Amino acid sequence: MTVTIGIARETAPGERRVAVTPETCKKLVTAGAKVRVERGLGDGAHFPDAAYAEAGAQLVDGSDDARAEADIALCVQPPGPDAIARLKRGAVLVGSLQPEADPARAEALRANDIVAFPLERLPRTTRAQAMDVLSSQAGMAGYKAVLIGAQLAPRFFPMLTTAAGTIRPSKVLVVGAGVAGLQAVATARRLGAQVECFDVRPETREQIESLGGKFLDLGVSAAGEGGYARQLTDEERAEQQRRLGEHLKGIDVIVCTAAVPGRPAPKIISAAMVAGMKPGSVIVDLAAETGGNCELTRPGETVDSNGVTIAGPLNLASSGALHASEMYARNVFNFVSLLLKDGALVFDWEDELLAKTVWPERPAS
């Protein structure tokens, strides 16, 4: 029996990315699946309907038609509870779903027996890298954040020697050396800035320096398990903030990217630190969606605090929708390929990538 895969247009405000591109659509069709795509799916990411049709997709009108009787539904942002209730009972849903963040969404998934695969739950293993949507989208966000900082800053990033004298390069500090942070380091260096990166995990030094940045050592380590940072003690945080506050007085642009999975973003830059920064400085807070690394960040807004500009952009990956979609769709295709065996839908619960990603969790056999 042919597996039907349905993809509807994203409805979240400002979301332009897609979970399937013409490239991955063709691969799914080649794998034996029937792909149904809502008309206009790729308009925001510049993938025309004709490209999907050429790739073998069936174009349909309306989100319900695209998902009607779909064995597998793909998405970027999670569908609302009503849309989930209209999915085929027992269908598979793959995307960035965050079921724990919305009780109504979680209940809708349970009530309709949906086999949900929230890709943010994917184990961080070497084999899973090709499916890692968090990393692929964070890369785009880190790149865009630096461009926002350069646009808001009243300074050049590179050093310039002109007839009017020499312009000194901007000093950029990236907070957090995850995927977004490292991409920010690389981008700021390409623009010619002097770049430092602060991370409480000392093992990130080599990665930062390999990209041309300088590791900012504040004498506080929060190395944790699985490559993530642990939470600091009150004493460690106080010492970290004292040293960081002094350092920020000479910084022109800060890009904040620090996050702790499943928790609000750690508050690293206090209002007092911002008050000590020089006028014209800029803070771009990528952690705004989970509360922000800066105490004064307002999610979705750009504000001024005594001459310091603080931007809290949301869903930055969507602003680079074409390339972000290409990466996201390849991640999704690689994961869905684990479910397709000879054109049929098969669940191999011995595969840790399926067993550890599925929600609700399956009891151990």
What is the compact description of this entry?
This is proton-translocating NAD(P)(+) transhydrogenase. The chain is α/β, with parallel strands linked by helices and 365 residues long.
Characterization of this structure:
It contains twelve helices and 17 strands. It is α/β, with parallel strands linked by helices. The chain folds into two domains: 153 residues, 3-Layer(aba) Sandwich (Rossmann fold), CATH 3.40.50.720; 177 residues, NAD(P)-binding Rossmann-like Domain (Rossmann fold, 3-Layer(aba) Sandwich), CATH 3.40.50.720. A seven-stranded mixed β-sheet has the order 11-10-9-12-13-15-14. Its EC number is 7.1.1.1.
pLDDT < 50 runs, ≥5 residues: none
Spatial extent as radius of gyration = 22 Å
Which oligomeric state applies?
Answer: single chain
- What is the CATH-assigned architecture of the largest domain? 3-Layer(aba) Sandwich
CATH class (first level) name of the largest domain: Alpha Beta
Proportion of residues in β-strands: 15-25%
Indicate the overall shape. Answer: elongated
Describe the biggest sheet? 7 strands, mixed
- Please report the total strand number as a whole number: 17
Helix content: 25-40%
For the biggest β-sheet, the strand order reads 11-10-9-12-13-15-14
In CATH, what is the homologous superfamily of the largest domain?
NAD(P)-binding Rossmann-like Domain
Tally the structural domains: 2
Structural class: alpha/beta
Function: The transhydrogenation between NADH and NADP is coupled to respiration and ATP hydrolysis and functions as a proton pump across the membrane.
EC number: 7.1.1.1
InterPro entries: Ala_DH/PNT_CS2, AlaDH/PNT_N, AlaDH/PNT_NAD(H)-bd, NAD(P)-bd_dom_sf
Protein name: proton-translocating NAD(P)(+) transhydrogenase
